[in-house]
Amino acid sequence: MHVRPLTHKLAGNIWFDQEATWTSPILMTGKNAAVWAAFGALTAGAILIDRRTAHVFENSAGQVRWGNNTSHGGATYIVLPEVAGFYLWGVTADNQKARETGVLGGEALLDSLTVVEMLKSCGCQEPPKCTGLAWRLFQRRCELPVRAFHLRRGLWLR
User: Fold this and answer.
1) Which of 49, 79, 105, 149 is 20 to 30 A from residue 3's alpha carbon, by CA?
2) CA end-to-end span of the chain
């Protein structure tokens, strides 16, 4: 098992994926503008009716428990061992499809974690029950994107 070429290829693929993700709004053309507009309208509509629909549907204890248990299935601590298992099984059993599934799953997981953490830091939404050292770290994390934005444009006045 050669780790270095895999790591190099994985890092390159993640770089290209992130570049495509963050530059796609800039590279919008007439062909895909309608798709962007449709998704934007759907997102705006979902945000507008979110509070109302949350109160319309019944939320019994069983439904809340089922929803919480279902959402844990997509958590990083569940998906990461599955992806690693596919990769290790593919390596030990010399199964190319399982190994590729593990690599692609790991790449997708790292891509999504990168996007989620970037959006969290840009949104600066206060995490629940955040006090003391955790609050100071959150404030620092929240300040970094703003500082980088202003530094890039030469507007940082401190």
Assistant:
1) 79
2) 51
Which of these, 108, 115, 111, lies nearest to 87 by C-alpha position?
108
d(CA 22, CA 109): 17
Cα angle vertex 82, ends 79, 88, to 5°?
140
Residues with Cβ within 8 Å of 89's Cβ and at least 6 positions away in sequence, in order, are 95, 98, 102
Contact 106, 87 (CB under 8 A): yes
Model-level pTM?
A: 0.63
Residue 99 near residue 90 (C-beta atoms within 8 A)? yes
CB atoms within 10 A of CB 102: 20
Domain ranges of the chain: 1-16+74-123, 126-158
What are the pLDDT digits (tens) for 40-64?
Answer: 999 999 988 887 877 777 778 888 8
Quick one: pLDDT at residue 56?
Answer: 77
Confirm if 105 and 83 have CB atoms less than 8 A apart.
Answer: yes
